[in-house]
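Methods — Computational structure assignment.
A single polypeptide chain was analysed. Its primary sequence is given first, followed by the predicted tertiary structure written as structure tokens.
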Amino acid sequence: MKILFLSIGKANESYIQIGVSDFTQRINKYFRCDWQIIAPPKNAASLSESELKNAEGKLVLGLLQKDDFLVLLDERGKMFNSPQLAQFIQQRANESNKQLIFLIGGAFGVSDAIHQRADYTWSLSPLVFPHMLVRLLLAEQVYRACTILRNEKYHHL
């Protein structure tokens, strides 16, 4: 199984990129893993929130394959603790999903089409974080889940 992280927004600041790259390399020891940062549409400033979400949604939907398992990150989603996240990832691998995709939406969220396409909606927290920080938190939590699956010492109860 491959893990793909999709995020709408600007490229990472250097201090975030260091951590994201580190955890991504670590995840690659367990699952093939990659990031794709999707730039907002060029005319984003002239679009309404709804138009922007729809435009971003079309970009995302154009990247997805029919059999991709899409996890939408949203503060209104269901929460996991770290062992539950590990079990969730293991279930996707057991189901022979070719690609597990975690999506961080745009500044105003995602379109209804993305909500409908999502196979699961996950909340890291009921708090709202800057998108770049979510990227780092997501990468770290997926790495933590991988170490839990292998019974390695990174995660402490």
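Note: The helical segments are 14-27, 49-61, 82-94, 112-117, 131-149.
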